[in-house]
Amino acid sequence: AAALAAAVGGELLSCLRAEAASHAGAEANEPHAPPPPKDACDLAARLVDELAPACVAALGSRHESTTMAILPLATAYVNRLKDAHAARLMPASSAANVEGTLGALLEAVIRRSSFPDESDVGVDFGDGDDKATRECEADAVAIRQELAVLFRSIARLAPHLALGAVRGALARALEPQAGAAQSGPRWQTVETALAALHLVGEGAHDGAVKPGVEESPLGELVEMLLGAWDVLGSNSPAVAAHRLVAPALLEICVRYHLAVERRPALLRPALAAFLDGRGVVHRSREVSRRACYLFCRFVKPLRGQILRHGALPGVMAALEPALMDAAVPEFALNPSAANSVGSSFTGGGTGGAMATAGNDDRLYVFEAFGLLLGVDDAPDDLRIRCLEAVFARLRGAVTEASSHADPANRNPAAAQHAIVAMGNVAKGFTLRVATQTSPRVGEILASGLDPALRCVQLWPRDPLVRTRVVAYFQRLVTTVGSAVFPYASPLLEHMRSAQPPSASDLRECLVLINQLMASFKESLLPFLATQLPNLVTQIASALAPFAAVGGGVNGVCGLFLDGARQVNPRLGGANPAGGNTEEAREARDLEKIFVAHAHGVAANNLAGVLVADPRLRECLLETLAAAAATHPSAMSRKSALQALIRVAQCWLPSVGSEVAASGATAREGPVPGFAAFAVQRVAKEACVDAVMRGDLDPRDAGCAAAVAETVNFTRVMLERLGDDFANHLRVNLLGANWGLDPESHGREYVRRVTSTTQNSAREARAFVAECAKIAQGKNPGVASNKCTPGM
Known about the structure:
By secondary structure, the chain is an all-alpha fold. Helix content is 66%, strand content 2%.
């Protein structure tokens, strides 16, 4: 019957759509088919209205086939109402029935979205570990997801009707218990109402979900819910702690945290939901995990309000059991524990990456703990007492996992778990709090580095251990600042202690150093002077097996070290070896990070380390110049040029002694000979020759970015070296080498490059492309090294 009704209704709505489409075409004065006869359209509209009750009844059926058969008809009916032309052509009798039909559809969707009665399906939904329960739950969730699409569509069309339907469902769920012997509303009724309340807030223009909006009907519904349900075992019904009801309530608190912020009276019942048996200490492991993640999301925007209303000491006391539980790895408690919970309305699953690679969402409770104590005005005695207690436990866990006499009994996974927890706590603190407001806090946060570094020493080849320790260290860089300096060198030594270190290991070292440079700038100079020489040697060795002149088949140019480019001779010639292997990809990534590192050295005022070390300076400059001139990747050329621009800005001051360099009179800076190098190797080979011979196609978006950097480097040279370089550029680099007229093309080239008008960059690229076309015409057969935009 449902399939028949859907088929008939679909044909009737097709007739009405044809009528609306015809009128829309007529209004737009566009070609259109003639509409169906008016009498037929009116009859179709009346028949659709007569089918509506059957559609609503079928939609609420507990038979999945019936519900899914009628769902397209309900969706088509709502889509008809969204069409302005169809709504205008609707007969008055049909228009009068719209609100009633939409309201009935909403009620049917909410009713049908509930989980089935346990006696009907023979499972206990309170037992999340049962396989049959999981399968039945998945079936219910799948249907709910389909119905949610219809609910959202109606809610966008008629928000007041959706609010009314949710209010009615919530009122039924909050009906008081009739007596001690009565259990109150079924948990399915309660969970469905909560899920509907959560769903109706998606995209709503309401003060409970959008800052700056005054009206908040949703906030009233949240107040109605939290006001009726207070502390577990007091005002809340027994079903509030059900495995599927409890997380639904917490999801509502997170989504509508603005309603809690506007109504301080709701803060206590909301916190109670997270901290009592409905949340982080729920008897179900999956619910408690999900509650830890949601509590972190709830605390982040409301931590200031929690402090202002004096709730912080109580929250810290209530969190103690959850912190103790989360300090123990999940696999030690229940190896087969699941990582998902929740309904389709509220959205199940874990909180992202925290649940991967051996972690679980319980670790978010440490982040919430840190966020609460990291508020500027938090009482210092409470902050230090709580931090010391938690960090003593976590440091002990790392030590215990790594100090067993028998290596076979050492537990790297348990150590990782505690290290991640310490890093999560540190997320809540700012540099000012940890170093100025309360220096003792910084000492406590950094106290986990010693046992963490021991883990890297014990398991140097375990990528997860290294990742966790590095992440903890990087977090402390932003939290406690220079207090991490003593640990930086040992950490790098451990990270590249393998013989030989892999490209992936060295890449992680450079990423870490780049962060340190960005944070500490000039104060990192002594550290770089001791670490970079050996690190560069190891990077050159790691790249050499995959490197070839011009990039070769692997797209790796290699480093220039000790007077020679470190390449693999077997990768040259007509039939090069190698290819797009995982090792080659890691080598390309390492080379890219090395170029970014060179850029960071100059950008963070650390070029002094190159001035003091000629070997290191030659390596970086020759490597960058070769990459800028010959690398097969346009993005790599762009990055190399950006690094060279930074170096030139450091070493080519506007004033200085003048020397002759390749026909150009250059100004010397702190590095003798750099001006000549910049003119000959960079300006000539990378900025002029590479573009003129056609390596970089300015019409390609990826190559255009590299061309723009050649223009930027040339501009810096013109600003710093003045007319002497301008004449050399016109007469020698463009004229003598490529046959361009020094007067017409050369002067215009200089003018375009140095222009500062609004569209100067685009105009300069366009003129460079025009010059390249002329140069290639005057130099037929010139060999080019075409660049790929990415790679």
